[in-house]
């Protein structure tokens, strides 16, 4: 079985047929499945979609149970948590639906952790970190694009001279560089390459 376009989050099961891992969809399994939009809904109260998965949380006054249902809790209602709570050994503790969120100083609301600025997120070479609420993802650096080559996805240099996305002067030559480009005025012209006279 060969899949010319690859199966990003899945496995190749037949000629250009992908079987996606749970939480992913699309012809090449490259799209995140929004489980929160499925019928029946996977969570009783509130659902938060994450990359390849989802998280359940409850309305105020309810506790999240292991099966994703929400059980009424008078003690939780008194604490007034933003995303529901749990009771551990008689102590009530507010919950955050993702590891990329942390409890604020009031102990009730959840604030985002910027994994990109704290260094918690590690993106591979040629990729940059993009923070999202409760998580992050890695995106190709400017001047690179995501391509499927030799059996895997990688960030490859965009040749701005070929794609005509350079800003070189009409009287200049475009020279592609790794992740960028340079402009050089043609013979008989002088200037930066962006301006030639």
Automatic annotation (TrEMBL):
Compartments (UniProt record): Secreted, Extracellular space, Extracellular matrix
Record-linked Pfam families: EGF_CA
Signal peptide: none
Stretches assigned to the EGF-like domain: 32-71, 112-150, 157-195
InterPro entries: EGF, EGF-like_Ca-bd_dom, EGF-type_Asp/Asn_hydroxyl_site, EGF_Ca-bd_CS, Growth_fac_rcpt_cys_sf, Nephronectin_domain, NOTCH1_EGF-like
Keyword match Calcium: yes
Keywords: Calcium, Cell adhesion, Developmental protein, Differentiation, Disulfide bond, EGF-like domain, Extracellular matrix, Repeat, Secreted, Signal
Similarity comment: Belongs to the nephronectin family.
Protein's recorded name: EGFL6 protein
